[in-house]
């Protein structure tokens, strides 16, 4: 029988379903970037090394700042280094910089400085010098008084650092707390704005379903259907693996 006497009866197009891995491909949960390690930021690395007394690279000027070392034993009337001993001086230096914390070091400095009233006044009752300070270090659970210069040299700190601690301690005797960096950055995006952006992106990611394009061909009575998907968003453009479905058609004689 010739092909002209045979009429092809189109059967209903088969239902094209999405593959089982659709949930993995078109997940409603957006894929966010990994958060960075804040401890590895250049400024935080430099801060940690600076408070540890190690060499570090300045963030602003990009220059190498040398590591801290014990100051020289300058001649003084109290002979501080001789009374303390170089081994104890090195131990105190190492323990101080091992703290690696600005607040802890400030508390240590405040605890090793004693303020007391001036015994004798040489410049009259209107003198601004109302108190005098004694600096000491702890050796075998005993406090040894040292001069201000040797106290700074033992700990490898500047006199300005000591004066800042004393000015902030005041009459309360409480060690100061470093408030730098406590407030939020003015350039930081607020958390509620970030949450709104994430929610908006999640909604768009959910409602943007792929368009199913069905192409059917007929050859020798076998209908072959191929299904592909495409989206309008280039960032989420994906293509299914072509799914080939076969269905037999009924052929009736005229």
Automatic annotation (TrEMBL):
Residues 1-24, 231-254 are annotated as: Disordered. This is Uncharacterized protein. Residues 242-254 have a biased composition (Polar residues).
